[in-house]
Specification:
Layout (H helix, E strand, L loop, with lengths): L1 E5 L4 E5 L3 H10 L10 H158 L8 E3 L2 E5 L6 H10 L3 E2 L5 H7 L5 E7 L8 E2 L26 E5 L4 E5 L6 E5 L1
Parallel strand pairs: 6-10
Antiparallel strand pairs: 1-2, 3-4, 4-10, 5-10, 6-7, 6-8, 8-9
The structure holds calcium ion (CA) (3 copies).
Length: 321
């Protein structure tokens, strides 16, 4: 470094680029060999100026350092505040992250559970689908069987109706044939009897092998019975419904040969035979022995059967031989 003092200007010239040269310059210049014109004052002035300059420089440096210190103190405070904020934000974010992590874990567990349920439900749905298909096939088969059975039932119903009609027709023909046969048989029997047995008396009517006298007047039961006996016969003894139909052709009310005059309630024919209990062709509610005085039996056309009445009544009568 070379330092030169410009005496004319009162300045110190220093060669900062060449310190050795400056030092040499100072050494080469002997003490007292100062520039002419300023003397001892000229030798002291550069040092003072340099000292002042250095002092100012030091002050500037000190001020700069203080400024920097203040600046960095403020910056440090701001930095600390920001760091606290950042730390707080970091902590909050960490909490949120933990919560999110927990939520994520919970959601993951829920998802796994849901996935398991989904798999189970899918399996159940598959089983249900199989069951549904099976049931659908069974239903279709049952429907087909039901339709077939209904058709068979309808066919059977039609056949039953036809068979019932045929049965009725056959029954009707059978009854006609039976009736015709019975008529022919009856006529045959009548012809046989008429041909084999003796003829009836004058005024008597022959029917089914017997001869009948039909009265033209009315008498009590006793007198009617005596009239028949006088004719060599008896009051008619009823053997069947055909005989009733024959007798009721002539009169509405006719004495027949049945009474309980010997013992009440014991019905006896005029030939001495007893009527079997529960037998006969009684009208509804008869015999009733009304007023304790009905012991003789009439045959009524309008009543279509027998009735016990007082023997003193007067009716037509029929004798049978
Ligand atoms: Ca008879
Ligand atoms: Ca009676
Ligand atoms: Ca009666």
């Amino acid at each position: 470094m070379s330092v030169e003092f410009n005496s004319s200007l009162g300045q110190l010239d220093v060669d900062y680029l060449n310190p050795k040269a400056a030092d040499e310059n100072l050494k080469m210049r002997p003490y007292g060999d100062e520039p002419s014109g300023c003397g001892r004052m000229c030798r002291r002035r550069p040092f003072k100026t340099a000292a002042v300059f250095l002092g100012l420089l030091c002050l500037l440096l000190l001020a700069g350092i203080i400024s920097l210190q203040v600046h960095y103190t403020k910056v440090g405070d701001v930095h600390d505040s920001e760091m606290r904020d950042i730390q707080t934000k970091y902590n909050n974010l960490t909490d949120k992250q933990n919560k999110l992590q927990n939520n994520y874990s919970n959601l993951k567990q829920d998802r796994n559970l849901l996935e398991t349920k989904y798999i189970n439900l899918t399996r159940e749905r598959h089983q249900l689908q199989i069951s549904y298909d099976t049931l659908t096939k069974l239903r279709d088969d049952s429907q087909t069987s039901l339709t077939s059975l209904r058709k068979q039932r309808d066919d059977l119903r039609n056949e039953k109706i036809q068979l019932a009609a045929e049965k009725e027709e056959l029954q009707r023909r059978f009854e006609l044939v039976t009736s015709s046969r019975d008529g022919i048989q009856e006529e045959l029997n009548s012809l046989s009897l008429n041909m084999t047995e003796k003829p009836c008396q004058q005024g008597w009517t022959k029917f089914n092998g017997s001869c009948y006298y039909i009265s033209t007047s009315s008498k009590t039961w006793i007198k009617s019975k005596k009239d028949c006996e006088d004719r060599g016969a008896n009051l008619v003894i009823i053997d069947n419904r055909k005989e009733i139909d024959f007798i009721t052709r002539f009169n509405d009310r006719t004495w027949i040969g049945l009474s309980d005059t010997v013992r009440e309630g014991k019905w006896t024919w005029v030939d001495g035979t007893d009527l079997q209990v529960g037998a006969g062709f009684w009208q509804r509610g008869e015999p009733n022995d009304a007023d304790d005085g009905e012991d003789c039996v009439e045959l009524s056309r309008s009543g279509k059967g027998w009735n016990d009445v007082p023997c003193s009544n007067k009716f037509s009568w029929v004798c049978e031989e």
